[in-house]
Write a structure and sequence with these properties.
Elements lengths: L2 H10 L3 H13 L12 H20 L3 H16 L5 H18 L5 H24 L7
Length: about 140
């Protein structure tokens, strides 16, 4: 199984993967839950599926339009006061959920493909943090 097969299975699962991701994310890192106060988690589960497509796509070809999108997305996360260290929590929870989702089809190779892809995306998003003044703690 490679990244494309993984994405296909996730799309076939409707929103099951998206829902399981947020429960893993909140269970492993309870401190992230407050960022989702008032956020519609059903919509967010769909957003996550879209996010995986973005991550996979960006790994395949780093098109300028996609870099712009990711930097803008990073800027919005910065405005929402999402700290940089939470991207590691996000990556860790995503890999954990993916491994649970794929079960026996999960492999070191697939783990490393996803890890590299997530890394590319995060690297682009956090550029926006360097470009923007730090948000003031509340
Ligand atoms: C690779 C890393 C990440 C990607 C690709 C990503 C992607 C996205 C996308 C596509 C949206 C939807 C934006 C929209 O509605 O227009 C979103 C929303 C959101 N993300 Fe992330 N995200 C990432 C990391 C994180 C982290 C680490 C947190 C930490 C708490 C976080 C918290 C949120 C929240 C709270 C929203 C919803 C904000 C709202 O609708 O008010 N994200 N994310």
């Amino acid at each position: 199984m490679d990244l494309n097969d993984s994405i296909s299975d996730i799309l076939d699962s409707d929103l099951r993967f998206g829902r399981s991701f947020y429960s893993t994310f909140f269970k492993r890192y309870p401190q992230v839950e407050k960022y989702f106060d008032g956020v519609n988690l059903h919509r967010q589960a769909a957003v996550l599926t879209m996010t995986l497509l973005v991550i996979e796509n960006y790994r395949t070809a780093q098109r300028p339009a996609m870099s712009t999108y990711l930097r803008e997305l990073g800027a919005r996360h910065n405005e929402w006061d999402v700290p940089l260290e939470m991207y590691d929590y996000f990556r860790d929870s995503l890999l954990e959920s993916l491994s649970q989702f794929h079960g026996k089809d999960w492999s070191d190779n697939l783990n490393s493909q996803w890890d590299t892809a997530i890394d590319c995306t995060i690297r682009e998003m956090v550029k926006a943090y360097e470009a923007q003044p730090e948000s003031t703690p509340t």
